[in-house]
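Re: [ENG-882] Designed sequences occasionally contain unexpected residues at chain ends

Forwarding the minimal case from QA. Structure tokens:
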């Protein structure tokens, strides 16, 4: 029985669809946690001094984490949880799932292919191959109107 579902989000349509599907199909007693991973590049963009290591720029890191929590709070529903990590998306999602004791990771994918996939990689693909938990991959498919009506706000 599923007790904990982790849904990594990046505030895209694909991750919103993963949230909608996870909400629709989770058992009532299951805890849903939305996770956003702040990348080092996000912190670096906020750092005016290029000599500062983004992972050690405490103020910028705190601001990025606070902004992510604020955005997550727009997505979360009553009874759900939010979390923010800083680092490489795939590795942080995997580590968070392990530490939190997730039974399932549900995430969206944009369906990149070919050169774009090779150049950018895919956190979803990495997790499918390496996560200890099952990974539910939600493709960018049409949702029924009831699910679509409850999608969180997206960028």
């Amino acid at each position: 029985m599923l007790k904990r579902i982790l849904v990594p989000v990046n505030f895209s349509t694909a991750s919103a669809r993963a949230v909608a599907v996870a909400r629709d199909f989770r058992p009532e007693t299951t805890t849903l946690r939305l996770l956003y991973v702040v990348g080092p590049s996000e912190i670096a963009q906020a750092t005016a001094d290029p000599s500062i290591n983004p992972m050690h720029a405490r103020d910028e890191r705190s601001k990025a984490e606070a902004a992510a929590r604020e955005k997550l709070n727009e997505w979360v529903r009553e009874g759900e949880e939010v979390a923010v990590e800083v680092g490489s998306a795939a590795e942080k999602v995997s580590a968070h799932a392990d530490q939190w004791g997730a039974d399932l990771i549900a995430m969206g994918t944009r369906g990149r292919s070919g050169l774009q996939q090779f150049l950018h990689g895919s956190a979803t693909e990495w997790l499918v191959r390496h996560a200890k938990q099952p990974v539910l991959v939600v493709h960018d498919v049409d949702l029924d109107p009831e699910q679509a009506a409850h999608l969180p706000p997206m960028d």
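QA comment: On inspection the terminal residues look reasonable. The first strand starts at residue 4 and ends at 8. Proposing we downgrade this to a documentation issue.
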